[in-house]
Amino acid sequence: MGRPKKKEPQKLERLRYENEYLRAEVALLKKVRALMEEKEKRLLEIGRKPSKH
Question: Low-confidence residues of the chain, pLDDT below 50?
Answer without folding.
Answer: none
